[in-house]
Design a protein that fits this description.
The protein is of the alpha/beta class. 43% of the residues lie in helices and 19% in strands.
């Protein structure tokens, strides 16, 4: 009997979906799966769990406008159909309302049970005009949210292409790390006052199996994945430390202090400062040869006190710490006052727009004056002409990098040491007894 009711619900809902798709009005199809409901079913038994699901279905139906349709498809999966000129906005509102509805006391439980719901969205007609295609898109979106652990309130079917691209990028980075296809190219930084070298920035390049090189624009989405970002950071640091050791062993290559970007994911993993100092010691590289560039989003992390303590240890050991992409993120004046940092690297959009927009110059001048008052060095990136370099010098910047000074280049491979030609062997002589 329960199976018959579930099949009837599916048949009835699909009929409503076909009828809605036959019209011309935009609508949203939302599939909802109650996360971890198996534990409730096991604890309370099938009958009581089914009664709870019926109550959940009633609550979801109550969230819909008059023209909306709700159905329990099978088990703990529900479907909602609602008119929506802006399906993404409607789904966001629905996700918030559904979360609130699932956080209320449920009958027969004897207390408040907090349930979570994964949601997959498809919009008519953008994501499909045929009901089967629309349902498949919503189902695929729901499956993706569930695969990701329900971390998103909902996912629209049209977003799956971006999800697939992100998955491919993660695979690209992971394979490159495993197969040792990560390389580091170095872009020079110069002092603006006299043009003297001021170290380099390490920039990541990945070579595919055919030997073609790619930059972050091809796999940047992978860096949103904490595990993947940490893997890449570790591979890059190993490569940089090896290059610094090689550059300091009489090869004639001078890198100076090398700036390395470190993701917030790596900074949050364990005791980053201890691991880095140990890696430097193993490589025989002085801490003063390394500079960490950190992003401003690190500053709003709830573990900021721990991170600050780690930064202080690294600075005490001789490392330089620079706040990267300053000017467009979360840093406040109190962060500049309280954080153990050594410098600011200005977000390159200010530099690239320095000549085109007169408002950029007073902003940069104010940043430089503030940095100087706090004892912080300043670096500008994205310098592509002598005119911009001159403007930055007049504004008081200490160092700069960009194509005007040099493009990123790999460290020259060590040349084999010529070996002397072996002496001709003496002819064999017979020895008589």
């Amino acid at each position: 009997e329960q199976i018959g009711r579930a099949l009837h619900a599916v048949t009835h809902f699909r009929g409503q979906l076909r009828e809605a798709c036959a019209g011309a009005e935009p609508l949203a199809l939302v599939l909802i799966d109650i996360a971890d409901f198996g534990a409730v079913n096991h604890r309370l038994g099938a009958d009581r769990a089914d009664a709870i699901l019926q109550e959940i279905g009633g609550r979801l139906a109550a969230l819909l406008p008059g023209a909306g349709v709700a159905a329990r498809l099978v088990g703990d999966e529900f479907a909602l159909l609602l008119p929506a000129s802006d399906p993404d906005a409607a789904a966001r509102r629905l996700a918030a309302a559904a979360a609130a509805a699932l956080d209320l006391p449920l009958a027969g439980v004897g207390g408040t049970v907090r349930l979570r719901a994964a949601m997959g969205l498809a919009a008519f007609p953008e994501d499909g005009r045929a009901p089967e295609a629309l349902f498949a898109r919503a189902k695929a979106a729901l499956s993706e949210v569930k695969r990701a652990g329900g971390g998103a309130d909902f996912l629209r079917g049209a977003m799956l292409a971006r999800v697939d691209a992100r998955r491919r990028a993660i695979g690209c980075v992971r394979d490159a790390v495993q197969e040792d296809r990560i390389r580091v190219w170095y872009q020079p930084k110069l002092r603006l006052a006299d043009g003297a070298p001021d170290g380099h920035e390490a920039l990541v390049r990945i070579f595919d199996r055919a030997g073609q090189v790619s930059g972050p624009g091809d796999w940047a989405e992978a860096l949103d994945d904490p595990e993947c970002a940490a893997l890449l950071d570790a591979a890059v640091l190993r490569r940089v430390l090896a290059d610094l050791r090689r550059a300091g062993s009489g090869t004639g290559t001078v890198l100076g202090r090398v700036a390395v970007n470190v993701s917030e994911h790596s900074l949050r993993r364990g005791d980053f400062a201890t691991h880095l100092l140990r890696a430097l010691a193993r490589a025989g590289v002085a801490p003063a040869q390394l500079e960490l560039e950190i992003v401003e989003t690190v500053l709003v992390d709830q573990r900021t006190p721990e991170l600050v303590a780690g930064f202080a240890r690294l600075r005490a050991a001789g490392l330089r710490i620079t706040l990267d992409d300053f000017g467009t993120g979360f840093a406040s004046l109190s962060h500049l006052r309280d954080l153990p940092i050594d410098g600011l690297k200005i977000e390159k959009s200010f530099v690239l727009g320095l000549q085109a927009d007169a408002r950029n110059a007073p902003i940069l001048r104010a940043i430089v004056m503030l940095a100087q008052a706090l004892g912080l060095h300043t670096v500008a990136e994205g310098v592509e002409s002598a005119e911009v370099a001159d403007l930055l010098r007049e504004l008081g910047f200490e160092a700069a990098q960009g194509y005007h000074f040099g493009r990123p280049q790999p460290l020259p491979e060590p040349q084999p040491v010529p070996q002397p030609e072996p002496a001709a062997a003496a002819p064999c002589q017979s020895v008589s007894d």
